[in-house]
Predict the structure.
Amino acid sequence: MALSRKHYEQLAKILGVNNASNDLINDISHFCKIDNRSFRHSTFVDRIKEIKSNELDALENLSNEDITALTTGYDIDGVAVNITRDPDFFLNK
């Protein structure tokens, strides 16, 4: 089964959000090129960089309390954070 553009986009998101190493990005890109001769490494890498940049921008806009909750699972008062109980959590609507 050949990969589609949606697959490449999802791979770019995964690699970008997880701050993948250049070696891993190159390995995945090589695999994609084998799968599809028209695959463009530079376009793929540019998309990953764009996603990484968006992630960094999002982190810069978080409050210290949000950063603490995301990194430790606890708020600044030491109370466990459970996002699924948050009334604003998208699955609770």
